[in-house]
Specification:
single chain, alpha/beta, Quinone Oxidoreductase, Chain A, domain 1, Rossmann fold, 2 domains, seven-stranded mixed beta sheet, six-stranded parallel beta sheet, 10 helices, about 30% helix
Length: about 300
Amino acid sequence: MKAIVQHEFGGPETLQVAEVDSPTPGAGEVVVKVTASTVNPLDTLIREGKALKEFTPLPFIPGWDVAGTVAEVGEGAPFEPGQRVFGMPRFPKPGKALAEYCVVDARNLAATPDSLSDAEAAALPMAGMTAWQAFHDTVEVKEGEKVLINGAGGGVGHLAVQIAAAAGATITAIASPSKHEWLRSLGAHEVVDYNDEAAMAALEGFTTAFNLAPGSWVPTLEAVAPGGHLITISGGADELNERAEEAGIHHHVTSVNTRDEWLAALVDLVEGGKLRPHISATYPLERAADAHRELDEGHAQGKIVITIG
């Protein structure tokens, strides 16, 4: 089968198409005929050898978001051949989703909602579970609370807006102006241009803030009310922890993982019409390196999808 194989850490050019053996399922596992995957910011850090290096011995097949149809079922796996499924396999070990076939623990899969295409389903697992974890596990966002999302226009951010809206929060989204009307349509009550210094400085009184903009945590922190919560998804510098403590703010560093109950919660929101991934661009498997290049530029709206087959 065709797959993307990485033999060394580095830039997008390290992502090479290769022929590899097709996987077979063990007990409780499913082989998925993959039709779509995605690229996430974490994928680029791993590609460069800057994250989870201890879990990614070379060579490896990258990619964690997977969507497609069940091709083979191992003993005890509760799926049927031909069934549409999606999920996030094996995290933090290589997910091996950038391939024509991917073997997945059945516990890491869910049935794909009829309302989603395979491309949309693939856009949901990692980004969606990151956002769900932030607002329903790390912090429990409640109706009427003021929530700030910095970096709201990206893969995690646009899903976080919808998840916070479904919880009944009042949401302020920080993003570039080209994304403002779109974010309002997703449930943001107020939108702020991150280049507008006056508007950024005026932000205050938030119960919870979710910072998804690297290098931009200071204005996010300063917008949180004393006793409130700041959530980041990468390791907090000592300075950030100290500043939060001095301001009487709870700082939480969250890191995504796969939980079947979180995937089920996302499915419930999709089926209730409250959550839908947005796809800004699609690339075939052979152009996975170009998908990484676009993500590296940092301006994607929603998710970038890689189609397979």
